[in-house]
Design goal:
The chain is an alpha/beta fold. 39% of the residues lie in helices and 11% in strands. The chain has a 5-stranded mixed beta sheet. Helix 1 runs antiparallel to helix 9 and helix 3 crosses helix 6. The chain is globular and about 70 Å long. The two termini are 41 Å apart.
Length: 295
C-alpha cells in the first residue's frame, strides 16, 4: 500500500497494513501536522511520489452537495444504541449544512475481522522474527546457548498479545495452511477493496462509527481476545482497502464515555475528509467536555 506519509523508522508490524497518522486536539492541527509529515521519502519505497497539497486550505465549512455514504452493514443490531444515536446526530449536522446522505453497501464487511487477523498476524510473524536479541531489540541476560538466547529473548521481550499474534501468524503461513488461510485472506481482501471502490462511485465519503461500543477499560477484554478484536470491526477496513480515514469525537454517552465518528474517502483524498470533519467540528454546536473516569 502506498501512502503519503513515510514509514521509515516505524517498527514494522504488518507491512501491507501499517499506516502512520497524527493524534491532534482538533481538525486544524491535523491539517497542519499532515503538511509537515506528508511527502515522498527516498528511504521508504512505499511512500507515494505525488504532490502534497496545503491541507489547511481544505478547512472550509462547506459540504453543500457532498454525498455522505452510510454503509448498511455497519448499522446493524451489533451497534450500540447510544453510539448509533451519536452518529446519526452527526449525520444530521452535516445534512443541515447541505450534505446529501446515500445508502451504500460494503457486502464483505463480515469477513473483514477474519481477513485482517490472518494477514496482520502472518506479516507480524515475519517482521518480528528479526528481534532475536542478536542485532535488534531486547537481549536476555545470562544466557549460555543460542537456543536459550532466542527462547528467553522472545519470551521475556514480548507481551502475551504479541506472542499470541506471532504464533497465529506462524501457523497460517506454515506448510499445508498457507493456501487455506493467508492466500484466501488476500483474495477476500481484494473483494473488500472493490467494495469501497464501488461505494465511492455513489458517495464522496463513507461515514461510520469508530467502534460498535463506547470505550472499555484497559485490560478489560484481555481474557477474551476475540471480543477485543471485534472492537476493530469498523476501522480495519481502512487498512485492508488502503484508503485514508479520520476518527473524531462526536459526543459523550450517558455514562460519560466518548463516542467516535469515522470518516473515510478515496485513496489520497484526505482533503475531502478534512473538509467534512472541519465542518462537523465547527457546526456541531457543543464542546466535548472531559470523559468521566471509570472506576
Amino acid at each position: 500500500t502506498y501512502g503519503r506519509i513515510s514509514r521509515y523508522g516505524l517498527v514494522a508490524f504488518a507491512s501491507s497494513l501499517d499506516q502512520i497518522g497524527p493524534f491532534t486536539k482538533d481538525v486544524e492541527d491535523t491539517a497542519i501536522a499532515l503538511n509537515v509529515m506528508c511527502g515522498r521519502d527516498p528511504r521508504d519505497s512505499t511512500s507515494a511520489d505525488i504532490p502534497v497539497p496545503d491541507f489547511t486550505k481544505a478547512l472550509k465549512t462547506d459540504v453543500k452537495g457532498l454525498r455522505i455514504g452510510l454503509p448498511k452493514e455497519y448499522f446493524t443490531d451489533a451497534l450500540n444504541a447510544e453510539m448509533r444515536e451519536k452518529i446519526m446526530a452527526a449525520v444530521g449536522v452535516l445534512e443541515k449544512e447541505g450534505a446529501k446522505v446515500v445508502e451504500v453497501s460494503l457486502p464483505h464487511t463480515d469477513y473483514a475481522i477474519a481477513v485482517y487477523y490472518i494477514i496482520c498476524t502472518a506479516e507480524a510473524s515475519a517482521n518480528l522474527a528479526r528481534f532475536d536479541g542478536v542485532r535488534y531489540g531486547y537481549r536476555a541476560p545470562g544466557v549460555t546457548s543460542t537456543q536459550e538466547l532466542y527462547t528467553r529473548t522472545k519470551t521475556d521481550g514480548y507481551g502475551p498479545e504479541v506472542r499470541r499474534r506471532i504464533m497465529l501468524g506462524t501457523y497460517v503461513l506454515s506448510s499445508g495452511y498457507y493456501d487455506a488461510y493467508y492466500l484466501k485472506a488476500q483474495k477476500v481482501r481484494s473483494l473488500i477493496r472493490r467494495d469501497f471502490t464501488e461505494a465511492f462511485e455513489k458517495c464522496d465519503v463513507v461515514l461510520t462509527p469508530t467502534s460498535p461500543t463506547p470505550a472499555f477499560k484497559i485490560g478489560e477484554k484481555a481474557a477474551n481476545p476475540l471480543e477485543m478484536y471485534l472492537s476493530d470491526i469498523y476501522t480495519i477496513s481502512v487498512n485492508l482497502a488502503g484508503i485514508p480515514g479520520l476518527s473524531m469525537p462526536c459526543g459523550l454517552t450517558a455514562s460519560g464515555l466518548p463516542a467516535g465518528l469515522q470518516i473515510m474517502a478515496k485513496p489520497f483524498d484526505e482533503e475531502t475528509i478534512l473538509r467534512v470533519a472541519y465542518t462537523y467540528e465547527q457546526k456541531r454546536g457543543f464542546t466535548m467536555g472531559t470523559p468521566t473516569a471509570v472506576k
